[in-house]
Protein 1
Amino acid sequence: DAFPAAPVGDAAFVSHDKGAATPADLYFVAFPHGKAHPFVHKLAKKARVIDISADFRLRDPAAYEKWYHFKHPYPALVKSAVYGLPEVYKPAIRKARVVANPGCYPTSVLLGLLPLKAFANRLSRDIIVDAKSGYSGAGRSAKINLLLSEGYGDFTAYKVVRHNHISEMQQEASGMFGGEARIAFTPHLIPAPRGILSTMYVRMLEPVSADELRAAYEKECARHPFLQLADPDKVPAIKQVNGTNLCLVNAFVDEDNGLIKVVSAIDNLIKGAAGQAVQNMNIMFGIKETAGLAATPIVP
């Protein structure tokens, strides 16, 4: 229904109940949080599944009651699902029956922090995240604050405590840094249709030089086709990644305050959702990881 006047090739819309009955090697499930798990459970019996909701992102089934307010009915499937951040879990994704596609904010945050694992014993695991998202991050529901006439020219914070994405950020950052990480996360809504810009503040327990930091980011980014390091002293911007599956990052040493500041930019609809799902599919089926995802950014 999104593009009723723009058919693409021979593609035709098939409702989920009919589509689920059609034999396939892989299903993408894109129901709201708390509504996807019965479909994933059913489909995983006969095919591989990539779930774009949060229903299988957390490894502890009990955590769903705290963060998503429902008791998970499929704890065994939760524990066997693989968190679908390719830059971290590619070997496991190749073999997975169910892949839990990460959230958009966590993708921007975790990829920005990933190269810092090289300094895990020199950094605090108490991390502050200040993030901004375009309107599309809130979906397409009819909400007054998402109307163009209401939001244009405005800039607001929302859900400033216990945002549900904190759960997966802390889960994954803890594994990345080898100990319990705490994330203080504040999301903001900006008057743009798409894109996420996240800034992470990480306190140094021991000094890290600018050269060391740059070298660590260069090394990590060279390993991943969609993690790209900005030029020295350049700050990523959402227009540089819109329409692409890229995460553009850069990191800076703030000596005056004893901090490392990391800035990352993604398109929340591509690397933050559907593009990452396609990337995971490519990995699962041994297809070239970049297949179908090599796009030129939309400018302006």
Note: The CA atoms of residues 63 and 297 lie 37 Å apart.
Protein 2
Amino acid sequence: AVGIGTAHGFYEGKPEINFERLAQVNAAIGIPLVLHGGTGIPEEDVRKAIRNGINKVNVGTQIRYTYLKAAGEQIAKMGPGAHTTEIMRPVRQTVAQEAKNWIRTCMAEGRA
């Protein structure tokens, strides 16, 4: 991972990404680069980072948050007596949609 102004977790405000440094590092080393702290970075900045050498975008915070929020909502909706599989079916769909959104943001649809 390169140090260009991103960090794991949620940001307070918009992160200031040093795209010039990213381009310089990419040109100098020519190996796949990782963007740590992709959660909360605007879509256009994620795509700009990818165009400048980023090959992997870490968004674990967003995926975890989506999972926990969806699980909490389902438990509140269905009640504590609901079976785990009943709760997790819609949670899984919500998390899968979030992952699909990130795949689209990263311009990786159809690239396995």
Note: The chain has four helices and two strands.
